[in-house]
Design brief:
alpha+beta, eight-stranded mixed β-sheet
Length: about 375
């Protein structure tokens, strides 16, 4: 890990550079500070737009600036037989609710003013690219952490006050402070012990894992097709399962009798589409640990019916990365690039508590996964 500020000590000669030949360029390369500021702002705006449009994250999440959710839960109502003189008993839905977290995140660049006066643009661009990578990585980790965590988020650390809770998907009442009885569907009724976090022994994905996850979603009215996210360590196992159909390869022409998924090859920030099985579009996503996977129903890019809900600051409709000098540094407005930092606020919570079902295939007892 390269930590600490960027000061004049960073301006040393690198291996393979001729000090004599480059002597006249060692203080500055003539790049105006306005160009540095413009590149930094462009990078911040670009990564924010990328997060919002990312096909995997957009299929999972929606956005809001509201801090609370309210939703229908299961209750025993029903139709009554009409009589000429009788009046029907009034009936109503039952609801439950929870809160959504909101956390501030920052990433300092640590530039001193003296360094900026003498810096090489290549170093500036490397710093910016590294900061953008950290924004992207943190977004991934926060989403995957919520997917693989059964317990509630709670407390002021998560922006939930002293008694607010942000629970996961449907789980046994003993695992959450916000009990949830899924609404009945298709003649099936559920209890507050209905569980979507499923532990399975065996140490490997099987075809039954996918058929069971499909049935779990379907029984709540989420109809195919679905998405399923796995980690790189499990990709070859899943690709070898009976019933798995791979995506078309960009550089390979399939034979006439070779079945291939109608979904084409797709790659995005290290993630890639693997193929399909049991109505699932299977993606390999960096950061998901071995033995873990998540099946879910997507209703479209950033749809309010998607499983996760990301809370933003009041008045914001999509992720926004702001750039300014760290107000804690004391640099002041006279040196706007000194101690520049990236700042954004968001928190990941669950919106549709039946919309996803995480799987852990290394034990019958569920254990939260650690995203990377």
């Amino acid at each position: 890990m390269a930590t600490g500020v960027r000061d004049t000590a960073s301006l040393g000669m690198l291996t393979g550079w001729d000090a004599t030949e480059l002597k006249k360029y060692e203080l500055a390369d003539g790049t105006p500070f306005s160009v540095v500021a413009a590149q930094l702002q462009t990078a911040a705006s670009g990564v924010a737009a990328e997060l919002y449009a990312d096909p995997i994250w957009a299929s999972l999440v929606s956005y809001t600036d509201m801090l609370e959710l309210e939703y229908r839960v299961g209750v025993s109502n029903g139709m009554g037989r009409y009589t000429e003189y009788g009046t029907p008993d009034p009936k109503r839905a039952a609801t439950e609710g929870h809160m959504l977290p909101l956390l501030p995140w920052d990433r300092g660049l640590g530039w001193t003013w003296r360094y900026l006066e003498a810096a090489r643009m290549a170093q500036i661009q490397a710093d910016i690219a590294d900061a953008v990578k950290d924004v992207r990585d943190n977004f991934r980790v926060q989403i995957l952490t919520r997917l693989l965590k059964r317990g509630d988020d709670s407390g002021a650390y998560y922006g939930l006050g002293s008694s607010g809770y942000s629970p996961g998907f449907a789980t046994a009442a003993a695992s959450t402070a916000v009990d949830f009885t899924p609404p009945s569907y298709g003649g099936s009724t559920f209890t507050s012990d209905h569980e979507h976090y499923v532990g399975i022994s065996g140490g490997a994905f099987t075809a039954a894992v996918f058929t069971d996850a499909r049935d779990e979603l379907l029984e709540h009215g989420h109809e195919p097709t679905y998405n399923f996210l796995i980690g790189k360590s499990d990709a070859s196992t899943v690709a070898g399962l009976t019933g798995f159909v791979e995506t078309a390869k960009q550089l390979v022409r399939p034979g006439d009798d070779t079945a291939q998924a109608v979904l084409g090859a797709s790659f995005n920030n290290g993630a890639y589409r693997l193929g399909t099985i049991s109505d699932f579009d299977v993606w390999v996503v960096p950061g998901i640990p071995q033995y873990y996977g998540v099946g879910y129903k997507s209703y479209g890019a950033n749809s309010q019916r998607n499983p996760l809900r990301i809370r933003l600051p009041k008045g914001y409709a999509r992720p926004t990365v702001r750039v300014f000098s760290d107000p804690r540094s004391g640099a002041g407005a006279a040196y706007p690039l000194q101690y520049a930092m990236l700042f954004l606020e968001y928190g990941v919570g669950v919106a549709e508590r039946t919309g996803a079902t995480p799987r852990y295939v290394n034990s019958t007892t569920w254990a939260d996964g650690t995203a990377a």
